[in-house]
Amino acid sequence: MAYQQSLVSILKASSLSLPVLQLYDSYRRGTFDFLPITDNQVSMYACGPTVYDYAHIGNLRTYLFTDLLRRVLMANEYSIKHVMNITDVGHLTSDADQGEDKMLKGARKQGKTAWQIAQYFEQAFMEDLNRLGIITPKIVCRATEHIEEQIDYIKALQENGFTYTTSDGVYFDSQKLERYGYLARLNIEGLQGGKRVELAQKKHHTDFALWKFSVVDTQQGDRQMQWESPWGIGFPGWHIECSAMSEKYLGTRFDIHVGGEDHIAVHHSNEIAQCEGRHGHQQANFWMHGYFLQSSGEKLSKSGRSILLKDLIDKGYSPRAFRYLVLTSHYRSHLQFSFAALDSASIALKRLDKLMHEWPLQGKVSGELLQQFLKHVNNDLKTPQALALLWSVTKGGLSDADKRATLLAFDQVLGLGLASDESAMPFKVSSIVPEEVEVLAQKRQLARINKDWGLSDRLRECIKEAGYSIEDIKEEGAEQRYKITLLSV
Ligand SMILES: [Zn+2]
Fold first, then answer.
1. Tell me: the pLDDT tens digits for 216-245?
2. How far is the CA of 240 from the centre of ligand 1 (A)?
3. pLDDT tens-place string over residues 368-419
4. What is the rounded distance in angstroms from the CA atom of residue 400 to the CA atom of residue 413?
5. 252 and 318 share a domain?
6. Under DSSP, is residue 280 helix (H, G, I), strand (E, B) or coil?
7. Closest CA to 387 of 431, 427, 327, 432
8. Residues 95 and 129 grouped into a single domain
9. From ligand 1's centre to the CA of 46, what distance in Å?
10. How far apart, in Å, are the Cα atoms of 483 and each of 63, 457, 464, 475, 480?
C-alpha cells in the first residue's frame, strides 16, 4: 500500500480538532461517545462465516460494515486488535439446536469430508474479502482449533451451575439468568407461553446446546467432526466458540463486538449469557450490528441460490461498485439491492474514477473539508452524508489537484480504491434501462406517431440528460421502434 498521510496529522496541520467519535450500541439502544478500555487501542471481535457454502452478497454487506468501522477507528488513530472467527463446526441448520451440522450437510452434498468443505469455503470467503478491499482481521481463528478452550469454558459454566445434561448433549439453562435475552429485549414469558415449540430434550425454549454428543451414523463415517470431552464424544455448540475465542484473544472485557442483525436474538444473546454465567458480566462495551441487504422486487436468489459476489463479477460488475452501493446506505438501515441500484453505483464510481485519473497529482488536502468528512463518519458511520460531501467536493471551488488529494484522504475511510490501478480497469456500468428513461422513450414514440417533432426532440434531450441515447429502428414489424443505449461517461 502506498504511503498514506494520517488524517489526524492533516487536521493538526490546519489547527483543526478531530470530531468526537460516537457509535450506536445495540445493548444500551443508543449512541454514545466511544472511548476504548486501553488508550489508543481498540479490541474488536467480529462473528465470522460458517464455511459450509459461499457467502452471499447479503453476508458480505456485514463484513463491509465491519471494515468501515475498522477504517473509521484507524482514522481516529487507534491501533486495532481485530479478531474474527471461522465457524467450521457446530452450527446446526436450525438456530434452535435442531437439524444437523451445516458442515456435515455440506460435506454429504458434495461427497467430501467436513474438513475439505471448511478449507475450500474459508478460502473462497477470504478471496471475497480481498476483492472487496476489506482489510483482513489481525487474528482469524477457527472453532476446530480451539476445542480445548471451549471445553474449559463449558466446565466453568458447569461449576457455576448453569448447565444440565440430556441424552443428546450438554445445555445452558437460560432460566438461571435473570437478564437472559436483554440484548434482544426478548419477552421470555411470551416465548414460553406462546405457540408450542419443539423443545426436544431442552427444559426451556431459550436453552441452547454447549456440547452435542456424536450420533452414530455409519453413513457419515469419518466425515463427522468429533472430539473427546468430559461429557462424551461429540462437538461444541455454535455459540460457545465465540465466547471462548474472544476471551482467549481479547480478555473477558473488550471494546466492540460486531455481527449481523440476525445474531441479536439468538447467537449474541447466548454469547452474552455464557459470559454472564462464567464471569457475572457481559463481555463488550459496544455491540454493533450491520443490517440486512434486501431485494426490491427482484429476487436476491436465483433457482434457490443466493446472489454471490462471483455472480456480480461474472455479469461484468466491479466489486468496487458493490462496495460503493453499500456505502450509499447507513449500516443500520436495510439496503434494497437491485441491479438498477448497482448500475447507478457503477456509473457514479466510474465518474469518480475518470475525474481522479484526469486531475493532476501533488495537491493538498483541505483540512476543513476533511474535518467535515470525519464529522459524518465519526457520527456513527454516516456514509451517505460522507458520500454527498465527496460529490460536493468534486463540484466545489478547490483546484483539481487539491480535490484529488482531498478525495484520496476520504478514501482512507471509504476504501473505494480511488486512483488505484484497479480503478483504471474497465467494468460494466449498466445492465438495464431505468424505468424513468423507458417512460420518456415511450412518450417520444407517441409524439413521433403524432408527428409532433418538436416534442420528440425535447424528449430526446431529456433522455440524453439522464445519460442515455435513443436511436430509432426503421425496420417494418419491429416490436420495439427504438433502442436505448447508455452514453459513455
Ligand atoms: Zn459469534
1. 655 555 556 889 999 999 999 989 999 999
2. 8
3. 999 999 999 999 999 999 999 999 999 999 999 999 999 999 999 999 999 8
4. 21
5. no
6. coil
7. 327
8. yes
9. 7
10. 40, 16, 13, 12, 8
CA of 171 to the centre of ligand 1 (A): 18
Residue 56 carries which DSSP code?
A: B
CA 186 to chain CA centroid, Å, is: 24
For the cut 80, the answer to whether the pLDDT of residue 164 exceeds it is yes
The range of the structural domain enclosing residue 445 comes to 435-486
Centre of ligand 1 to C-alpha 129, Å, is: 18
Residues that place a CB less than 5 A from ion ligand 1: 47, 242
Dist. CA 483 → ligand 1 center (Å): 51
Tell which of 424, 447, 462 closes a domain. 424
Distance 411 CA to ligand 1 centre (A): 29
Residue 86, domain CATH: 3.40.50.620
Q: Separation of 84 CA from ligand 1 center, angstroms?
A: 9
pTM of the model: 0.85
- The alpha carbon of 47 and the centre of ligand 1 are apart by a number of angstroms equal to 4
pLDDT digits (tens, 9 = 90+) for 51-67: 988 899 999 999 999 99
Higher pLDDT, 286 or 483: 286
Count of domains forming the chain: 3
413 and 469 share one domain: no
Burial class (CB in 10 A: 0-12, 13-18, 19+), 220: middle
- Provide the pLDDT confidence category of residue 192 given band limits of 50, 70 and 90: low
Last residue of a domain, one of 376, 397, 424: 424
Q: 8 lies in a domain?
A: no
